Amino acid sequence: MRFFLLLFFIGGLSASSDFNRYYCEDIKKPFFKIEEVNGEKRVRPNREGSHYFDFPFNKDKKRRRIFIVGESAAAILYSNNNKPKDQPFFETKDFEIINFGMPAYESKRIKDVVIQSLDFNPDAIVLMSGNNEGFNEPCPGLAFEIKRRYLNVSYNLAKIFSNEREKLFNLSLKIQKDNISETIDRAYEKNIKIFIVTLPYNVFLPPDGERPADKEYISGYMAYDDGKYDLSQKIFEKIVLKDKKKEPFARYYLGMSLYKRGEQEKAYDYLSQSLIFDNRLDRAGTQRNDMLRKLAAEKKADLIDLEKKFLSVSKNNLFMDENLFADGVHWYRDNNPPIQNYFIDEFNKNFFKINSAGGEWLKKDLYNENSASLALSYGASSLSIKTQDGICRINERFFYFWERYLNYGGKTDISSIKKSLKENPFSKDYDEFFLKSYPVYAFEYFSRKGNYKEAESLLSKSKFSKNNGCFIKILASDAARKKDCNKMENLKESFEKNNMADWFYAYSSAAGCGEFEKKMLKEAKQERKSDPKKDSQAKSFSDKAVSLIKENKYQEAEKELEKALALNPYHFESVMNMSYLLSVQGRYEEAKVFLDAVLEDEKELKSENLCSAYMTRSWVLSKMNLLKESQSDKIKAEQVCRKKDKEDSERQ
Fold this sequence. Notes:
By secondary structure, the protein is an alpha/beta fold. It has helices spanning 2-9, 16-25, 72-76, 107-117, 142-159, 164-188, 215-225, 229-242, 248-260, 264-276, 285-299, 306-312, 336-352, 371-382, 397-407, 414-423, 431-448, 452-459, 469-482, 485-497, 501-511, 514-529, 532-550, 554-567, 572-584, 588-599, 607-623, 627-651; strands at residues 32-37, 40-45, 55-56, 64-70, 95-99, 124-128, 193-198, 302-305. Among the domains are: 2-135 and 163-203 and 284-352, SGNH hydrolase (Rossmann fold), CATH 3.40.50.1110; 215-276, Serine Threonine Protein Phosphatase 5, Tetratricopeptide repeat; 529-651, Alpha Horseshoe (Serine Threonine Protein Phosphatase 5, Tetratricopeptide repeat). The protein is 58% helix and 6% strand. It is globular, with a radius of gyration of 29 Å.
């Protein structure tokens, strides 16, 4: 989200060249410069993308000097309106408060600014970090290459494990903690106080990127869109149970299904998981804030618990209300005054031992004439045309912001869209593409809502290429929702031309287009089964896994079996070995998933394989205390085994 956030908080930046200058080139310059004005030394910004500040080199002895250093959350507090040239927000008789917030800066860049700021004798530093801690280092050059290589090595080490996303999140957490810890140590060397701020976040914003295209997932989405939250909950519970990759969308939709059904605590657990497994790692989250709280306690730093404050005005103590946020992490500027007052209360408490009686706190539903424009701009910036594999991806966040745009009174006609984009100067970089493509994405939104009349009306106005992958996916999504198998069949060739056969299979399967599904499944199986080279490679991986299992090296064995099944998911030996490996670890539910998959095609199995599969599943079911089902499989196994023995005897 880094480039996107820059558009909203730095008025002069809109193109990628501006981003490169801000994020990669300016960073090489000192953050501050000292200029002499009328015989007095003044400190001013030296980086082009910085907010303006101007303060005397020599500190006012009557006031405490406090620097706020951080990312866009800090930058919002710079001004209480959208005029970037306004002076910093709050000056009091006791405090000189100067804001160095830099949108998109992560903890390493923030640390560098803090270290430079120590030369200007602050009494305290306020640290605001946590929303930009992903693994993207886009800048060229040796200094950035060193960092990039460190991140890549760490990233690849984390990916060795099957729970890759969890390892990556923990690695991101460690890097942030190390950077902040070093920042605190450098400040303490000069006897400067540190205030660590926990950051608020919106768990209701979907994960970044495209939802997985899989029969089960699509069935779950459609159940959720239809308001069948009990069904969508069951579908996504099943997906999450067997999902080792920590897919964020499965957890998001499970969390939202639970939330809609009033199961708040369970909902919060899964929505939090979707946040930390999000590819962008662009929201702080409670785990990251907990790390900051513990670090503050360990380092004896002061804590400004903004997350807790946001929770205090929310409907319950688990979720921060989404209408407090303009997106996933940024509050509306109208709420700056109470937040600023909260900061000053904390400064008074720390420096003067004065406890405030408390004043006004956050206001909700701060929608105004700019809200629709802001939501539309966020939605427009989330759209993308292509990804590295050449396949168009549909970012789910568009639909979240599009709904907000409509709820704030936005209209769908082209003139209203143009007017709304014009009201937000940060939209100019993506106007042309958005105006051409928005009717297609809006069509998908209204189709999900069952408003087919509005959907068709918008689609007729689209100037999007009919061969675009996103356009084809959206038509298939609509056909699946309507269970229109003829329309689905007509899209098959377009999917194949765009190298998206997997998507076609997923949508047609979810639509219940049985003949297409069976035909494609049979073709896919035949293609995989008729490749002796892949079978040989799969067996090699499987054999290696067996050796590792004997040495109790289960994690390594699982990795080898995953390689085998990636080559041929129908390789019987590999599937059976995987089910055994999961069983010996007590992971019976997962083992059953593999055995169920094998037995779906029992007619294609040899007798000895069928006997083995039933016997194994019978044992697994008994461990799950499903005794009736276990007995049924045992009887089937005995019947198959007797039949096999009889056939063997007759052959002899």
